[in-house]
Amino acid sequence: MGPPTHVPPGLRGLPQFDEEKCIGCGACFSSCSSKAITMLNDGDKRTIQVYYMRCIFCGRCEEICPEEGIKLSDKFELATLDRDKAFVTVSFDLVRCERCGTPITTTRQIEKVKERILEEIDPNVKETVERDLEKYMTLCPECRRILSYELNTNTRKFYLRWWEK
């Protein structure tokens, strides 16, 4: 038996999730041209899974991930007799719309969005923005739109329709 195979630098190996960094946003799923990445919202969980036998190791998932939560590793051995080893999976708690129950996103993604928004906000309006985030972040886009009309905060109120002139 010969020496172990040398792995060249820059090798595009098997995609691996970094469970500390991944927020379950689904950007990797949306950008996967080979459909190797699936995303399933089931009950109170979102599961993202990479099927290695379909992956073309293009690296698009790594490039698109906003949190560096998926990386191409230096592992390249795909041979297995155990079908469960042909997948890598990560799961997250799912947030559903408070009004209609539609799945929105993961709790980790909501927390990351809040954190990023609040770190860039003017301290004079930070408290107001925090209150608004609490109101809107647990609603789906359609329910947000409806609430913005109810609260008269929708930006369309500033525009006159041509037939009202």
Structure summarized in a few sentences:
This protein is an alpha+beta fold. It contains five helices and six strands; from the N terminus they run βαββαβββααα. The chain has helices at 27-31, 60-64, 107-119, 126-136, 141-150, and strands spanning 15-17, 37-42, 45-51, 70-72, 87-96, 103-106.
Q: What's the end-to-end separation, in Å?
A: 85 Å
- Strand fraction equals 15-25%
What CATH architecture would you give? 2-Layer Sandwich
The main sheet orders its strands as 2-3-5-6
Helicity range of the residues?
Answer: 25-40%
Average the pLDDT over all residues and give the rounded result. Answer: 85
CATH class (first level) name: Alpha Beta
- The ordered string of helix (H) and strand (E) elements is EHEEHEEEHHH
> How is the main sheet built?
4 strands, antiparallel
The chain-level structural class is alpha+beta
Would you mind describing this structure in some detail?
- With 165 residues, the protein is α+β, with helices and mostly antiparallel strands.
- The chain has one domain (15-155): Alpha-Beta Plaits (2-Layer Sandwich), CATH 3.30.70.
- The chain has five helices and six strands.
- The strands form two sheets. Strands 2-3-5-6 form a four-stranded antiparallel β-sheet. Strands 1-4 form a two-stranded antiparallel sheet.
- A hairpin with a 2-residue loop joins strand 2 (37-42) and strand 3 (45-51).
- It is elongated, with a radius of gyration of 21 Å.
- It starts with 14 loop residues before the first strand and ends in a 15-residue tail after the last helix.
- The model has no long low-confidence stretch (mean pLDDT 85).
